[in-house]
Amino acid sequence: MTIRRLTIAAIMAAVLAAAAPSFAHHSFAAEFDANKCREFTGTLTKVEWTNPHGFFHVDVKDTDGTVHNWSFQTYALITLRRAGTSLELFKQNIGKDVWVRGCEAKNGRPFYAAAGSLKFASDGVLRQMGQLQD
Amino acid sequence: MTGLRFRLSVGCAAIAALIGVQYASPRAQGARPAAGAQTAPKYTITVMPPGGPPPRLPDGHIDLSGHWLPNSAGQGVSGRDGVDPAARRQFDPKVTPEEQPSFQPWAAEKIKNMTPVELELAKSSVNCMPRGLPAIWLQNPYSTVIVHTPTMMAQLYEVLNNWRLVYTDGRPAPKDPEPWFHGTSTTRWEGDTLVVNSHGFDERTYVMPTGWFHSDEMKVTERYTRPSKNHLIVQITVDDPKVLTKPWTSAPRRWTLGNGEVYEFYCTNNHELDELGKLKEQESYGK
Fold it and tell me: pLDDT grade, residue B38 (50/70/90)?
């Protein structure tokens, strides 16, 4: 084996070793910007109980008073269910206040983010919705 | 509750939660125990004990039937707090380290040249293609139900509602099988280990979500053991001389017996291809 081949093999081994912990899931970091994570508060308007990801929508008021309907991506539904978050819970909170910590899309799509965590005002429980990037 | 009061209360709760996570979470305590601490961290979700002896089929072989979770907890662990890190694992790399695949130089070069977005788009979890074999046992965070009889093992994968039948009745493999995502299999018992040899794979799948692709010549060996009632061990060997310089064998990976629900998972609302496609366009403009 030449030195070049050995170098390539070593680089690949390092890349794979670094990637090993994330084998099970795809990376939110590829699609969402860890430097654009922030908190949102608003009113829950809709939930899409679908795979490979669920989505919920929140009317968020900007600093200038304009209201925009944000779409937040969640884990796959199986993960939400096994962590104790159900569709029924979302339905019960439509029209009510929610708090979200999420990260905006890297491609610049407006009003679209990955949800890291969520609180319904109705119970105040911090629920993990996706990978926290910050 | 008014919007302002809610914001204030949520803000305070978030700060309190962060402080709580920092100072009270079992993970944080477990990572750096206080000097002289004698008590182990308290976790809500811990490693599942082995249980009693494994069940057996009427013919005396080990019965692999069960609802299997890909961790050591016997329940879902993603998105949950209070999980012992050991309960999240399928294997302990300090005890059974998993070797790295040794790629042919051209294959290593091909993988190295994939951009982060291309790597992402190649993942089954992103593109909604079947994981196929062997990825279904190597990159699957969801559960698998096995129904085992003396003549057949049915594997019902929660992810994408995929399934596979492995016949254990001694039928020979076809010489020139159609390319299937799970290949075509023959089986034999080595003591209490069920050995499944498969070939004839669809080339569109990836062995690992690292860009590790395979050729039409890939052969996969699965070794199934059930050392106790609650533990299933699956070890995979990939032999693919076009892509690898030598066969690769996984660590013996543990799946644990669950008693919760099995959920439907049809991939019908995938935004990722569009979103990542836009990113790929931006990536190519930047080149």
Answer: low
Tell me whether residue B96 is exposed, middle or buried, using C-beta atoms within 10 angstroms of its C-beta: 0 to 12, 13 to 18, 19 or more: middle
Report the gap between the CA of B76 and the closest CA in chain A (Å): 5
The answer to whether the CB atoms of A12 and B142 lie below 8 A apart is no
* Tokens of residue B227, six digits: 């050392």
Substitution target from B4, B8, B78 for chain A, most A beta carbons within 10 A? B78
Q: How far apart are CA A6 and CA B205, in angstroms?
A: 27
Residue with tokens 């009510």: A96
Helix (H, G, I), strand (E, B) or coil at A110: coil
- Distance CA(B12)–CA(A132), nearest Å, equals 19
Average pLDDT over residues B137-156: 97
**pLDDT higher than threshold 60 for residue B23:** no
Helix (H) or strand (E) holding B3: helix B3-24
Whether a cis peptide bond, with omega within 30° of 0, leads into A52 is yes
Say which amino acid occupies B274: D
Burial environment of residue B24 by CB neighbours within 10 A (0 to 12, 13 to 18, 19 or more)? exposed
All domains of chain A in start order, with CATH: 28-128 (2.40.50.140)
Confidence check on the interface: ipTM exceeds 0.90, yes or no: no
